[in-house]
Structure formats: C-alpha cells, structure tokens
Amino acid sequence: MKLxxxxxxxxxxxISLPLVFSTVSFVGELPDQSxxxxxxFRYVLPIDRTLQNGTLSCQFTILPVPExxxxxxxxxxxxxxxFTPTFNDxxxxxxxxxxxxxxxxxxxxxxxxxxxxxxxxxxxxSPKTKVYLEEKYTYxxxxxxxxGDTLTFMLLAGPEGMIINFTTGxxxxxxxxxxxxxxxxxxxxxxxxxxxxFDVVVTERNYIELTRLRVNVDGSLxxxxxxxxxxxxxxxxxxxxxxxxxxxxxxxGLDFDEVFAxxxxxxxxxxxxxxxxxxxxxxxxxxxxxxxxxxxxxxxxQVLDDTFDVRLIIEAEDxxxxxxxxxxxxxxxxxxxxxxxxxxxxxxxxxxIKCSGSVEVFGTIxxxxxxxxxxxxxxxxxxxxxxxxxxxxxxxxxxDKDNMFKFSTPFFISQDAGAGRYRFDLEVLxxxxxxxxxxxxxxxxxxxxxxxxxxDEDKDPVVIIVPEEPEEPKEPxxxxxxxxxxxxxxxxxxxxxxxxxxxxxxxxxVFVLIVFLFKR
Length: 520
What we know:
With 520 residues, the protein is mainly β. It has helices spanning 5-16, 493-519; strands at residues 25-26, 33-36, 41-44, 47-48, 57-63, 70-74, 79-83, 91-101, 104-115, 122-123, 130-132, 137-140, 143-144, 152-157, 163-164, 170-173, 179-188, 193-203, 208-217, 220-224, 229-232, 237-246, 256-269, 274-279, 283-285, 290-298, 307-318, 323-334, 341-349, 352-354, 357-367, 373-381, 386-394, 404-413, 420-430, 435-446. The protein has 4 domains: 23-115, Immunoglobulin-like, CATH 2.60.40.10; 122-203, Cadherins (Immunoglobulin-like, Sandwich), CATH 2.60.40.60; 208-334, Coagulation Factor XIII, Chain A, domain 1, CATH 2.70.50; 341-446, Immunoglobulin-like (Sandwich), CATH 2.60.40. The strands form 10 sheets. Strands 21, 23, 24, 25, 27 and 28 form a 6-stranded mixed β-sheet that branches. Strands 30-36-35-32-33 form a 5-stranded mixed β-sheet, with no helix packed on it. The chain starts with a helix and ends with a helix. 17% of the residues are buried.
C-alpha cells in the first residue's frame, strides 16, 4: 500500500502537534446543593491534584447573579467557594467552576437552590396606656413584615367593648369604668405571629397637668419625661423646675385656689434610711394658665453610687372644693467618678484679730470616688512660717467614718508679724500624687495700738516767782505759861472702856437667858 505525499504530510502534522490537557481534574460529578436565605454556603471543590503541573487556578460564575456576597478562596492546594444569600435571593442558581494549571483547565457546573426563609413581622408602635373615663380611646398598631407579606391584626384579650380592625390594626374603645385593663394583641403574616401585651389605666379627667419638668444639675438644664433618669454627682446642686397648667377652659372654667408640688427622693438621706421630702410654695392658678414651681435639692456629699426613685406629686384644689392629685415617677442616678477627692471646707477662724492672738486653721476632705485613696494634706503660710502636714487613707464607702478627714490646728500670731492680710494655702495630693487640689483662706491682722509717749526731759524748766511779803513789826517778848487742854468725858479713854464693859455684860445676860429657857 502506497501513501501519497498528501497523506504523509497530514500524518506528520498530526504526529507533530502536542497533546494539551489539564493535569488537574475534578473527582466525579458535582452534586446539587441547597442553602437557606441568610445562611453561609461553603463548598470545597473535589479536585485530583496528583498530576498538577504549576500553580493551581480556580474560577467561578453564578447565574442568575444574586445579591448576596460570594467569593472563591485558593490556597494553592484547594479551592473553596463561599456564598451568603440575602433574604431576596430565594431561587435556583447554576454555578460554573473552572480549575486548571499551566497545562490546561477543566470546567464543571452544579445547581444550588436558595430556600426561602420567612421572617417574622415586627411591631413598631408603642401603645397608649392612659385614658379618661368615658372618653374615646384609640391606638393604631403599627407593624411591618421584612418579606412584604400581608399582615393580620387580632385582639386576643381586652376589656369589654374594645375592638380592632383586622387589616389596619386600629383599636377603639370607650371605657365605662375606672381601673386597669390588660390588653393582648397579635400580628401574623400567616406563617409566624408576634404579640404585644400592655395595660390601659382608666381614670377620671384631671384638670391639673404637669406640662414640663426641667432639672438643673450644676448649671446644666435639661427637660425630662416621666420615667426618665436624671444624672448627678455627690454634692451636686439640683433644682427641679415644674411647669403646671390648669386644664379648665378659659371661658367658664374654675380657678384653682391652692396648687403645690411635693418632691420625694427615696432613701437618699441618713445612710439610705431617710427620704428627702420638700414641698413647694402654694399658689393660685386661673383657668388655662400655667406657672412654674421650683424645688432645690443638694445631693449629700456622702452618698452611694446608686439609682434612687423620685416621686413628683402635684395637688390642686379648685374654688368649689374639688381636689386633684397627679403623681409622676422619675429616677435620680448618682454617678461617682472612679477616683476623686473633694475639699468640703477650708477656713481660718477668726478671720480678723487685733495686733496678735490665736487662730484655728481647720478643714474637711472626703473621698467622693469609687476607690480607696492615700491622701497627703498640707497647709502652709509662708509669711507666718506655718506648716501642717498629714497623710491619711480615705475609704470609698461614704458611710464609713474613714471616708472623711477633718483637721483643726491652733496657731498663735504674734505682734511681730505686723498688720496685714495673711494667706493660708491648702494642698491635697492623691492617686500617687498625680491628682492635686488646692484651696486658700485669709486672716486679717489689725495694727497694734500706739504706746503712750513719756514727757520730754529736755524742755526748759518752768520758774515760778513768788513776791516777798513785807515783814510785820515784832511784838515784845512775853514770858510763856503752861497750856492746859480740857477734854470732854465722852471722848475720854475711860468712857470707851465703860462702854465695852456694858456690851460684854449684855452678851453674858443673853447667854444665861437662852440656857434658862432651854432647860425649861
């Protein structure tokens, strides 16, 4: 058999062409897979790498294109596919995988079903929980379904006469009696159901209203609603500003003769055993008018890091004797810093002395934080050469006696100091001397009185000249006779002796008489 030149050429071309194929291959067919919405799908491709030549490559395509994130990880030895479908990705997908190396590639596909997941509806509205007697009550229940399903509203429990619209969720009711009434509603998307339970409180209409509560804490003024929490610190200055409004109509309404408010903070005084209770001033209120009451409160500097119940009670009496009481509740939260030492007071007494004298230097320091602290206390006066130093440990428990340090030391200011104003400086160090507090006080020293000046001896002496009297003529000498003095008897020593004897005799007679009477 002879081969033609054309056949020989074709054979040569066929024999000369290299055989190109991938040395990396899939192991078997790729089975169908499934995953639920919102869940992670993770799939490791089954690859035979026995004959791999060069770097492994992995690629994929997915149709239709989903919303959820997807990616292929290749660590050089294995290919891993990740996909997290969103809640809008329910359906069937075809995923095409391509693997290979420098010698070639291989492709295979698989089917992935994303299973629909029903998400439950969400109630987004808050119920109205108060209504006046014989006044209409309405509450529109608001809800949405993430999947866009149709919702159905149902009233599972409620007072007599209350109804709900199955499609809109509106609740209507007119209460015929006072009291507290439980209500239970449900919202369903036909697959899942959610519930909302609440109480409706029915009261008579109150013609006094707490319009607004503002609280000023250390200069920061904020508005609070019932149930809100007011933040303060130990020793904070707190002022409650209460806006009260008369709901009587302005045309023919009644005047309120007496309106006042009472503020109660439970268990904040006397180591938690006593309430703070303070009444406001009384005032009158005309129909439709508003007034603002203020009640101040100073947080104790020794107080727990805690939350305290606050009750605000408003009482009013109108001109016909009808009384109304309104009570709202709040919370006061005392936030103590982690580390804080405070100076309560620092004084010098008396603040003024004359010339010289003793003064008392005293002060109070306490731990307002949540950590025990070693504290250095020093009081100095450079001009007066005064230096007082102490190191104390202050515990964080506000009710412990070692939470506070009181010092008092006397000091004598001599007249050598001189008149003037002298300063005393207080320095407090804590937290390993990283925190420092200072305070100062003054004492005024008045000038000493001027001493009396002696008379000046250098002054010229005063000379008094007395004129000489003229000499009288001398009488002739007459011989002297003996002078005899005559003395009355009552002034003589004999008379005095006689009186003494009579006095002594009287004493003896009185004594004898007393003895005689006593014996009888």
